[in-house]
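Bench log, entry 3. Co-assembly request; chain sequences pasted below exactly as received.
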Amino acid sequence: MKSNNRPLSPHLQIYKPQITSILSISHRFTGIILYLSTFLISLWLFCTAFNNNLKIILNNFFFSNLGKIILFFITFSFTYHFLNGLRHLIWDFGYGFNIKNVYLTGFIIIILTLTINIYIWFF
Amino acid sequence: MINFLKKFYSFGLNKNGLSHWIWQRISAFLMIFLFFWIIFSFQELSINFITDFNTWIKIPINLILFITLFIVVIHHSTLGMLNIFEDYVQLEKKKKLFSILLKTISFLIIFISIFSVCHIYSEII
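Structure output for the full assembly:
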């Protein structure tokens, strides 16, 4: 096989939308969001350490509506990725592979993610 | 045995799939405990987080665990991003370039964060 013609994973639009594929794609997507959010954390740490003016601007931004929306996406991605990651680790030990359990744990994760985020942002 | 250790000490960042897989799981396990610790620690600060963070980080154990968490998080996410490149970037050259870029950015983020946190730690109260 030529080096410029590597086999790839099937592209996302090829999957029929169903809970298993949606949760798997979401795991990767939230992972990307979390990686990008480490840039923000790093920037915040840098400003906290070295630049007081930038720190104030950044803190005000996070208290604004846009900042809160960004923080919401980060907390949502974090809770989802964390819970789904636990599910992956349970799979790695060989448990929960049958289709009934995959669907059940999938629904539990969706409900838990929503509940935790509602608790964080509204209580 | 030597081969296994070589795979283990590459931290999953070389081309070996097994090493990548193992380190992704090791970092995930470490993060479970570290995130529980940081969530419960931050809960106590949450009333006045911004000012309290500076005093919180001055406690040595908090500093060490925070730096450990940050390194583990970046390591885990770098491995995850490399996985995405592996799956969806077709050209070998492009994949290599993206991988180098990603590793450089990740290293810079770790460096900036540790440097900043250590600076806060060394500030006189």
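Residues 27-122 of chain B form one domain. The interface with chain A takes residues 25, 28-29, 32, 35, 50, 53-54, 73-74, 77-78, 80-81, 84, 87-88, 90-93, 95, 109, 112-113, 115-117, 119-120 of chain B (CB under 8 Å).
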